[in-house]
């Protein structure tokens, strides 16, 4: 594809790609790999040339589980050299607690305490690796933390095991002096039939039970919210509203109520993508924008970078331009103001409870029939936003 934006324009944003995303070789449950892929340091070179600012990784995306110390040192050497050459960083680290068969019944929530201990041991090493690479964010995706058979484990027991694990790891990070924020990533299902923290709302509630809730935020992913049939814009707004969306987001595309598709950002839902970018602009979000997506199986090795990775970044930048047009469009802004116009003094009366406010509210002459007669030009506003997205408004 011809580039819409230069590497310098892309670098102005905090765009990040997981090593597992561009490293995906097109394998799926029904088909073998459709491309060869390349080692982690080569992925960094290709992403850096396109203008990405950072990479994210699980521990085993970079270091195989059975690697010797010498192999680990060699891999890290080549990887960090490539990062320096491309002026890139590791924005986020995580731990693979889902691939090995030891996690077939969970990691932090496994019924076997020895498996839970191994999960903590592995995660501490992954946190150390992330800190060594300079990552300031550590994400927990509990893909195996769930169940197929509810008779096997009380979910409340699973919640408690998960809570104790996060508490333990928060204290570990504090004890080590790592400048690291945790972020929990929800998903409703897949690979488990049901995952214990399925939505952003569930994660927000869970965080309030922790010993150090100030250390833990949300890593919301577009696809995971849509898998639950929810509105990602609304879910993410709740996280912003609670000041729990400051460090990391996973962006991609997804058709609702299906398996995890991880399409390119903006490819499936222009409205949703637009309002996601607008939300980030409005909240002056400065965290990482991680494209947790996968190229199609039909895409070549170089197409993964030329078409897929570049396309993710350019789609975001196009939507950001549309947000600026939205903010400057007088007709759209006038319609919005008209729809949301109201009596400031009346709102102030409802903002804080008092006996005087109760008395005044009781006496207000509010006629529901007259209130219902007010025209709300929401459909007209929707038309204009769609015209803007389709390039029909100057």
Describe the protein.
The structure is a single chain. Helix 3 runs parallel beside helix 5, helix 10 packs parallel to helix 11 and helix 11 crosses helix 12. The model has no long low-confidence stretch (mean pLDDT 97). The strands form 2 sheets. An 8-stranded parallel beta sheet has the order 8-6-4-3-2-1-10-9. Strands 5-7 form a two-stranded antiparallel ribbon. Helix content is 48%, strand content 10%. It has 394 residues and is an alpha/beta fold. It folds into 2 domains: 318 residues, Divalent-metal-dependent TIM barrel enzymes (TIM Barrel), CATH 3.20.20.150; 60 residues, no CATH class.
Describe the secondary structure blueprint for this structure.
Layout: H1 7-11, E1 15-18, H2 19-22, H3 40-50, E2 54-58, H4 59-62, H5 69-86, E3 89-94, H6 113-132, E4 137-141, E5 146-147, H7 155-176, E6 181-185, E7 194-195, H8 200-207, E8 216-218, H9 222-227, H10 232-241, E9 248-251, H11 270-282, E10 288-291, H12 303-328, H13 330-339, H14 344-351, H15 355-363, H16 368-372, H17 378-389
Parallel strand pairs: 1-2, 1-10, 2-3, 3-4, 4-6, 6-8, 9-10
Antiparallel strand pairs: 5-7
Helix pairs in contact: 3-5, 6-7, 10-11, 11-12, 13-17
Structure summarized in a few sentences:
This protein is α/β, with parallel strands linked by helices. It contains 17 helices and ten strands.
Into how many domains do the coordinates divide? 2
* SSE arrangement, N to C: HEHHEHHEHEEHEEHEHHEHEHHHHHH
Q: And the CATH topology of the largest domain?
A: TIM Barrel
Number of strands: 10
Our count of helices gives: 17
What Rg, in angstroms, do the CA atoms define?
23 Å
The description of the largest β-sheet is: 8 strands, parallel
Assign a percent range to the helix content: 40-55%
The backbone outline, from C-alpha atoms, is: globular
What structural class should be given to the helix and strand makeup?
alpha/beta
Cα separation of the termini: 26 Å
- Give, in spatial order, the strands making up the sheet with the most strands: 8-6-4-3-2-1-10-9
Summed over residues and divided by their number, the pLDDT gives a mean of: 97
Instruction: Name the poorly predicted regions.
Output: none
CATH superfamily assignment of the largest domain? Divalent-metal-dependent TIM barrel enzymes
What is the CATH architecture term of the largest domain?
Answer: Alpha-Beta Barrel
> How much strand content do the residues show?
5-15%
What's the level 1 CATH class of the largest domain? Alpha Beta
